[in-house]
């Protein structure tokens, strides 16, 4: 799955991005480790074959981002994402998997995944996605993003769920679900970064959540957009 680094260049940084990998297939795990450690600005601080092993050790690794498979022996990656989210409320978690069906995508995002990549993702794009997630984005493979958009176009908010979101707040929430972060959402909505932050604060208060991940998960569960 992972080949040469394809000339990926990162911005100079004082400290490398600390990545934890959970992948049961040894060849893929070692390939990912080599890719990350072989790229300036990145460091694989741990690579595990099972969620259970990662849960026992991950707090001491202090990762900046977690990259996990979903189809794992023992505890699934879906359940693992939920457990990691409780340990690290703000650290981005990216699913890296062969599964591209609606159920897996929906469950991973609802459980707290910030991004969803397929294992055929080119190495340069994978590295870019890790950086993007740490900067607040929600990287997704194109096929996955298309499924997410299609899925949410079919959703309608239930009558009982009325959080009094304004049209601007609803549009911003939809953009976050589609993978935008503050800067790209501001450009898409033709408003300032400060205004996006203001709307985001109001969304958190109205939905009674504390992070973008929780807001997106609640919007998914309750079909708010």
Q: What is the CATH-assigned architecture of the largest domain?
A: 3-Layer(aba) Sandwich
| N-to-C order of helices and strands | EHEHEHEHEHHHHHH
Largest sheet: spatial strand order: 2-1-3-4-5
Distance between the termini: 35 Å
The description of the largest β-sheet is: 5 strands, parallel
Radius of gyration: 17 Å
Number of helices: 10
**Structural domain tally:** 2
Low-confidence stretches: 2-8
Q: What share of the residues lie within helices?
A: 40-55%
CATH topology of the largest domain: Rossmann fold
Mean pLDDT: 88
Approximately what portion of the residues adopt beta-strand conformation? 5-15%
* Outline type: globular
CATH homologous superfamily label of the largest domain: Response regulator
Number of strands: 5
* Structure classification: alpha/beta
The CATH class of the largest domain turns out to be: Alpha Beta
Summarize the structure in words:
The chain is α/β, with parallel strands linked by helices and 225 residues long. The chain has 2 domains: 17-148, Rossmann fold, CATH 3.40.50.2300; 157-222, Arc Repressor Mutant, subunit A (Orthogonal Bundle), CATH 1.10.10.10. Helix content is 50%, strand content 12%. It has 10 helices and 5 strands. It has helices at 26-37, 51-61, 77-87, 102-110, 123-134, 142-153, 167-177, 182-189, 193-207, 212-222; strands at residues 17-22, 42-48, 65-68, 93-97, 115-118. The chain has a 5-stranded parallel sheet with strand order 2-1-3-4-5, sandwiched between helices. Helix 3 links the parallel strand 3 (65-68) and strand 4. The longest helix is centred in the last third of the chain and has 15 residues, at 193-207. It is globular. Mean pLDDT is 88; it is low at 2-8.
